[in-house]
Amino acid sequence: HGHVAEACETTLDALGLDALDSYLLHWPEAWAYQGPLRNLADRPVEAQEEATFPRDTDGEIETAAVTLEETWRSLERLVDRGLTRTIGICNVSLEQLESVCSFARVPPAIVQIERHPHTPREDLVAFCHRRGIRVVAHSPLPASVLAEPVVEEIADERGLSPAQVVLAWNVGNGVVPIPSSTEPAHIVENAAAAAVRLSPAEYDRLDALAGDGSGDERDGDER
């Protein structure tokens, strides 16, 4: 947690900014410190992975004995210093988020989670909406969801792409999806999904795809 300010200042320097709109904690558990990440993109890929994904002798992620509250206090000090306007957290469970909200002096403005019809995280999203926390969905377009027959059926019925259907499902639920598109045509298509309004029946059909809410399907994200 003592390295939070260093990381934020490195980001600001790289972007040529004085302050950020929001600064998010990528993971609720603290990982072992591997040194400054300045000029990370200039390092070989293997060195980048070693710096950002520290491993112990068993090949597991190496953690640090730092509590989530300690790290959050460091983030709050960034707000105090004017380095970021808001702070948030990613990849968090409902229990962890409830804990943060119980001790936070500066509450989270954004929560970023994996979210799509297979993993809707309804309880967490509802909690965020009650507290005015913006929910952002990363990895919203896994291939397994795009290939669902019901997604393809709705896409055909509406003259949309499967990706547009799934993105519209998130938007209609008050969630901001952030697909990692690189193809210009996909970027335009995805942006157009913000204007799509699904019917209650279509939401019901997509909601029926929900699994146990614990999956991680990012490896299949095609877009």
From TrEMBL:
Pfam family, one: Aldo_ket_red
Residues of the NADP-dependent oxidoreductase domain: 3-209
InterPro entries per UniProt: AKR (IPR020471), NAD(P)_OxRdtase_dom_sf (IPR036812), NADP_OxRdtase_dom (IPR023210)
GO MF annotation list: oxidoreductase activity
Cross-referenced PANTHER family: ALDO/KETO REDUCTASE
Name of the molecule in the record: Aldo/keto reductase
Organism: Halococcus saccharolyticus DSM 5350
